Amino acid sequence: MIRTRRLAMLTPLLVSALALGPAVAAHGATGHAPAAPTKPRCLLTEDSTHSKPDDPRFTLSASGFKSDAVSFSGGNGSGGAKTANGSFSVGNLKPGHYIARSKKDGEVNCGRTPGEKGGKKSEARAQYAKGFSAGFKLIKKDCKAKPPHGLNKSTKDYEAGFKDGAALAADQFC
Q1: What is the mean pLDDT of the chain?
Q2: How far apart are CA 100 and CA 44, in angstroms?
Q3: Across 146-168, average pLDDT
Q4: Is 31 exposed, middle or buried (0-12, 13-18, 19+ CB in 10 A)?
């Protein structure tokens, strides 16, 4: 008799659990993965409205910020922007390296525009590239060619590029 009562009491609980199971499971499954927290990010693009051939301008677009206000610094000095849903966009900016900052998000590196004047570094790269090209062409043309006499008077970057270009051409063609 005890078994009969126990079975009689447990049957409604078991039936209701079986009936509610799919409904509870469907409530929790929305079909979408939980959204990952977004990190703030920004992008520099050319501002075609304000750019001129000799004076390129850029737009700084950012998203994912938790703060209502963001400050930025770069080629124009510095400025600020109000965010709408964590995003903002500022145009007519000069070439430069830009950084966006907010209290809640910290500092975000937005990158460097292509037209930024890099000073000594870009001049060194340009000299190295010229030397590399000259050394490569010279050795490609004649494997027994010697460096020109004025090479020692050129910059260290040009000389290093010349040697590297000549070595690469010698490996490939000689």
Answers
A1: 77
A2: 12
A3: 77
A4: exposed
Tell me how far apart the alpha carbons of residues 65 and 97 are, in angstroms, rounded to a whole number. Answer: 19
Phi, psi of 41 (to 5 degrees): -150, 160
CA–CA distance, 170 with 174 (Å, rounded to integer) = 5
**How do residues 122-139 score in pLDDT, each as one tens digit?**
677 778 888 888 888 888
Token pair 């126990």 in the structure block, residue: 6
Could you write out the DSSP letters of every residue in the chain? Answer: -HHHHHHHHHHHHHHHHHHHHHHHHHHH--SSPPPPPPPPEEEEEE-TTT-BTTB--EEEEEE---SSEEEEEETTEEEEEE-BTTBEEEEEEPSSEEEEEETTTEEEEEEE-TT---THHHHHHHHHHHHHHHHHHHHHH-TT----GGGGGS-HHHHHHHHHHHHHHHHHH-
Over residues 162-167, the mean pLDDT reads 85
